[in-house]
Design a protein that fits this description.
alpha+beta; D-Maltodextrin-Binding Protein, domain 2; 4-stranded mixed beta sheet; 3-stranded antiparallel beta sheet; 18 helices; 13 strands; 15% strand; disordered N terminus; Maltose/Cyclodextrin-bd; transport; membrane; Maltodextrin-binding protein
Length: 430
């Protein structure tokens, strides 16, 4: 669960969004002072810069190097990269280095930071051909959108999947109904058929959204902070389904702050046949000697997929770049099929490139294939700053439900009321 903790730590930082004060005007491509015309090459691109600078995540440069080399050979533009921690340091350092003129042309950040970066004027909208967009899964492109505009291209995705102990379960079930029946028969004493951290909204969202709930209404790529669907009919049904598992089959020990470590312990000790967890958990399970199988989440009782939250790492053009067109060309190049495949080989980061889902390299990697397939049903975590106000109230509501201390409708109504109040207080309308 270390990865989950880092996700929430990153999201918590969104609460301190600064007012829009970025260099939108200064960062626009500058026109030639002579006659106000912009120089362009025959292919419609501006003159080539001598150099572009990229900030890559730590310990990931090895995957960027072959892509850079190929780009340099094709376009004759020198590309330098620097490894800077992705979760918070790239954003924080860009605030200083960008205005000083010492920042990069391209950065990489988790998609849930896009709203804040746009609000602060740190990254710019990009324009790419439809053929480029069609390279990627629809959900991964949606993650790069803010207020209906595109601000990056995706490089890697992660989302929770179904993980099972092959010694205890022959194969992954197709439906949650099958899993429920298996769990009823298997669960006895300190053995459990299936475990999930559904008092944690990051994981519970998959059930709630699959039943028809939503966080913020998505209007063609623009999230409406005033339209919250976390207490609608579908959300209530999803939460009732969650309550059923806690009431009948889940142990009380996986509720609350220590729930993640308790669940991991049960699975790694061979006491749980299956769990819902993410790719960050694979290695620890294998290190514990568990022969794991991995599959997309089984379908819900209504026939819909579990619509898990998805995290997307992307490439973005700095608002301070003097060469935004070429910076955009660079991120198109380093995310293409060939370079995405090479990145997976070197880092095991799973690319949201549609053509690679059935590529033997990924198809023969059970975990990667499961994440790739599940990501097609997943919903990107909302990337607007107001999302920071959702986690706390939803955690409270889900824990009340899990502990049988409140009915789903009552708990969700109270959560949404609190979310709306906090949004109005901490993110006043302009």
């Amino acid at each position: 669960m270390k990865k989950t903790v880092s996700i929430f730590s990153s999201l918590a930082l969104l609460a301190g969004v600064m007012a829009g004060c970025g260099p939108q005007d200064e960062a626009k491509p500058k026109e030639n002072e002579n006659e106000g015309k912009t120089e362009v090459s025959e292919d419609g691109m501006p003159p080539k810069p001598e150099k572009l600078v990229v900030w890559e995540d730590v310990k990931r440069g090895v995957a960027l190097e072959p892509a850079i080399k190929a780009f340099e050979e094709k376009y004759g533009i020198k590309v330098e990269y620097k490894e800077v921690e992705m979760a918070t340091k790239q954003r924080d350092q860009l605030r200083l280095d960008g205005p000083a003129g010492t920042g990069p042309d391209v950065i990489t950040v988790p998609h849930d930071q896009i709203g804040q970066l746009v609000t602060e004027g740190l990254i710019r909208e990009i324009n790419v051909d439809q053929a480029v967009l069609d390279t990627f899964t629809e959900s991964s492109i949606a993650a790069q959108m803010y207020d209906g505009k595109l601000y990056g291209l995706p490089k890697a995705v992660e989302t929770p999947v179904f993980i099972y102990n092959k010694k205890l379960m022959d194969k992954a079930p197709e439906t949650m109904d099958e899993l429920y029946q298996f769990s009823k028969e298997f669960t006895k004493g300190d053995q459990y058929g299936f475990l999930a951290l559904w008092d944690n909204f990051y994981f519970a969202h998959g059930v709630i959204a699959g039943m028809g709930g939503y966080v913020f209404k998505n209007n063609n790529g623009a999230l409406d902070r005033n339209d919250i669907g976390l207490n609608n009919e579908g959300a209530v049904k999803g939460t009732e389904y969650i309550q059923k598992w806690y009431k009948e089959l889940f142990p009380k020990g996986i509720i609350g702050e220590n729930g993640g470590s308790a669940m991991d312990g049960l699975f790694n000790e061979g006491k749980a046949a299956s769990v819902m967890n993410g790719p960050w958990a694979f290695q620890g399970m294998r290190d514990a000697g568990i022969d794991i199988g991995v599959a997309p989440m089984p379908k819900l009782p209504n026939g819909e997929p579990v619509k898990t939250f998805m995290g997307v790492k992307g490439w973005h053009v700095s608002a301070f770049s003097k060469h935004p067109e070429w910076a955009t060309k660079l991120i198109e190049f380093i995310t293409n099929e060939e370079n995405a495949k090479k990145r997976f080989e070197l880092t095991r980061e799973i690319p949201p490139v549609k053509s690679l889902i059935n590529d033997p390299l990924i198809a023969e990697d059970e975990g990667a294939k499961a994440v790739a397939i599940q990501s097609q049903y997943a919903i990107p975590m909302p990337n607007i700053p107001e999302m920071a106000e959702v986690w706390g109230p939803m955690a409270t509501a889900l824990q009340l439900v899990a502990n049988q201390k409140a009915e789903p409708k009552q708990a969700l109504d109270e959560a949404v009321k609190t979310i709306k109040t906090n949004i109005e207080t901490n993110h006043p309308s302009k």
